[in-house]
């Protein structure tokens, strides 16, 4: 498990542990871990100067401890500190760390140096950030963001909400780090919404705290281990009926492409048979993918198999009627795009959705999630985990809240945050592909939660693979994903994939 904790949980662990240790011991461990991290990053570099930013709280204390350790490390490092002390008295631990930094002959500066250090260490604010950055801290963060000097954030990049991944506002700023060294435990906000962009690569220094001090995690990071029990090699004695049927209900006039992308994704991720139940007469076949069958949606039986409803479905009376008929049925459902918008606008459809017992996956982006919850997309983004959990609980379904750090939530269950994927996925049709993978895995017998976890991981990993081959992120097309999805899934099952 790759656990994620809330700030309240980390505070509780810290209190329990601190009571068993000498005062300042945890800060000294954090400072040592930070210094070790800096030394590793500086290995082999000719530039040996490090600038540490220390804020008024204990995050600043960590930076001062790190500065003292680096100055005393005998590694030829030029250590400079900018200390932005607050108006209130520093904690005893931070005061002690300040003394150690002075004793170690660290240089204290009043302003940013003229020449670039090898590394900036951000110890301005951590989990104690209480409001938007302002004054000298804001000026410094904006200047550093403009300069682009490499930054290692201690615990949390300054300005980021460690619970939600939002930049604390109004009109907030956060210091963009290439890396973040999280203390005690990994934090939710480093991995979703703005978190991935602001925190960069995240490492955890547990400060030698024993596992028994930790409560059950609030959430966890997605990884192949979470759906590995479904990754089974195929029997030689199998046939297309062994791997399920997926019907894509969508493709209204002018939007046939969305349904085709979903169908291709379902096919390339292993469904036995894939068809499009089209709402309007469109193309009779897909000339690129002739394996896909086409049916008239109006007469298609909606009570069996696996249905992916929504891609290019539109908002017609027929679309509404098909949803009303499908929701009470026994078919496993993936609901995406227009299906979600129709449900968001209809109390009757919401009731039908909430009463379902067959497997159901909802794949909203933030605006669709907002419509389902009757709030704004900004509110959804301000707490993505809460929004995903609320939808899962309200509609008794597995939810994939898309966006940077997609959140997968189950009713009453711990949320999972996905880490694969890149901005190449921020383009038309990639959501249709994701829905197709979800439907395909459901049709192959995966339970809904594993299907959602697997689909999101594989979809993001496929995009990462394309980018590593020079295909995107700029201009990555949704129609390029299915083949990469096939490669990733086969490697997972047959053995050579990196399981992240
Ligand atoms: N607890 C642990 O688990 C361990 C914690 N450790 C470390 O301590 C960090 C938490 O320390 P912390 O609680 O002192 O909070 P921190 O992030 O330094 O900031 C609070 C200070 O900033 C101030 N302030 C807040 N917002 C502001 C703003 N916008 N603009 C200006 N000022 C603002 C606020 O004062 P206020 O003005 O609100 O009264 C207060 O003075 C944690 O992230 C980790 O790095 C480790 O040593 C190991 C164990
Ligand atoms: K920080």
From TrEMBL:
Positions of (6S)-NADPHX binding: 58-62, 126-132, 155, 258, 312, 365, 432
NCBIfam families: yjeF_cterm, yjeF_nterm
Organism: Massilia psychrophila
EC nos: 4.2.1.136, 5.1.99.6
Family, similarity comment: Belongs to the NnrD/CARKD family. In the C-terminal section; belongs to the NnrD/CARKD family.
Gene that this sequence comes from: nnrE
Entry-linked HAMAP family: NADHX_dehydratase, NADHX_epimerase
Cofactor: K(+); Mg(2+)
Keywords: ATP-binding, Isomerase, Lyase, Metal-binding, Multifunctional enzyme, NAD, NADP, Nucleotide-binding, Potassium
Single GO MF descriptor: ATP binding
GO biological process: metabolite repair; nicotinamide nucleotide metabolic process
Superkingdom of source: Bacteria
Name the record gives this protein: Bifunctional NAD(P)H-hydrate repair enzyme
Catalyzed chemical reaction(s): (6S)-NADPHX + ADP = AMP + phosphate + NADPH + H(+); (6R)-NADPHX = (6S)-NADPHX; (6R)-NADHX = (6S)-NADHX; (6S)-NADHX + ADP = AMP + phosphate + NADH + H(+)
Parts forming coiled coils: none
Residue intervals of the YjeF C-terminal domain: 223-492
Gene3D superfamilies the UniProt entry points to: 3.40.1190.20, YjeF N-terminal domain
Chain residues that bind K(+): 59, 122, 158
Organism taxonomic ancestry: Bacteria, Pseudomonadati, Pseudomonadota, Betaproteobacteria, Burkholderiales
Transmembrane segments: none
Record text on cofactor binding: Binds 1 potassium ion per subunit.
């Amino acid at each position: 498990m790759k656990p994620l904790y809330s700030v309240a949980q980390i505070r509780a662990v810290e209190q329990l542990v601190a009571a068993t240790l000498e005062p300042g011991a945890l800060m000294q461990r954090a400072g040592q871990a930070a210094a070790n991290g800096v030394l590793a990053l500086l290995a082999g570099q000719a530039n040996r100067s490090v600038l540490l930013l220390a804020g008024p709280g204990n995050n600043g204390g960590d930076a001062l401890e790190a500065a003292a350790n680096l100055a005393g490390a005998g590694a030829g490092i030029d250590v400079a500190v900018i200390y932005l002390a607050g108006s209130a008295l520093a904690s005893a631990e931070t005061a002690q760390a300040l003394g150690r930094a002075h004793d170690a002959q660290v240089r204290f500066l009043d302003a940013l140096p003229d020449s670039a250090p090898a590394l900036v260490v951000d110890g301005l604010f951590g989990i104690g950030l209480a409001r938007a950055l302002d004054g000298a801290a804001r000026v410094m963060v904006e200047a550093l963001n403009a300069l682009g000097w490499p930054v290692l954030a201690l615990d949390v990049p300054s300005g980021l909400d460690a619970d939600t991944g939002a930049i604390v506002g109004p009109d907030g700023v956060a210091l963009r780090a290439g890396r973040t060294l999280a203390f005690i435990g990994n934090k939710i906000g480093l991995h979703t919404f703005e978190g991935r962009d602001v925190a960069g690569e995240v490492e955890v220094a547990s400060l030698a705290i024993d596992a028994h001090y930790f409560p059950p995690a609030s959430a966890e990071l997605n990884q192949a281990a979470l759906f590995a029990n479904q990754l089974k090699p195929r029997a030689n004695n199998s046939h297309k009926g062994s791997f399920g049927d997926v019907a894509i209900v969508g493709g209204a006039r002018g939007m046939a492409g969305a349904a085709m992308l979903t169908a291709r994704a379902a096919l390339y991720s292993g469904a036995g048979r894939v068809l499009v139940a089209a709402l309007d007469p469109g193309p009779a076949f897909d000339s690129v993918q002739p394996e896909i069958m086409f049916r008239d949606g109006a007469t298609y039986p909606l009570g069996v198999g696996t249905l992916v409803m929504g891609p290019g479905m539109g908002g017609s009376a027929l679309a509404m009627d098909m949803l009303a008929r499908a929701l009470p049925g026994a078919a496993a459902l993936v609901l995406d795009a227009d299906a979600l918008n129709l449900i968001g606008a209809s109390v009757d459809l919401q009731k039908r959705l909430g009463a379902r017992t067959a497997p159901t996956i909802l794949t909203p982006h933030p605006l669709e999630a907002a419509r389902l919850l009757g709030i704004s997309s900004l509110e959804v983004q301000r707490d993505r985990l809460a929004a995903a959990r609320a939808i899962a609980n309200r509609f008794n379904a597995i939810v994939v809240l898309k966006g940077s750090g997609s959140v997968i939530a189950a009713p009453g269950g711990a949320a999972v945050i996905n880490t694969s994927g890149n901005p190449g996925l921020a383009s038309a049709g990639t959501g249709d592909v994701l829905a197709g993978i979800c439907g395909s895995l459901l049709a192959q017998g995966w339970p809904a939660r594993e299907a959602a976890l697997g689909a999101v991981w594989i979809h993001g990993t496929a995009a990462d693979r394309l980018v590593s081959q020079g295909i995107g992120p700029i201009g990555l097309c949704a129609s390029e994903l299915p083949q990469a999805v096939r490669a990733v899934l086969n490697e997972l099952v047959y053995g050579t994939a990196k399981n992240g």
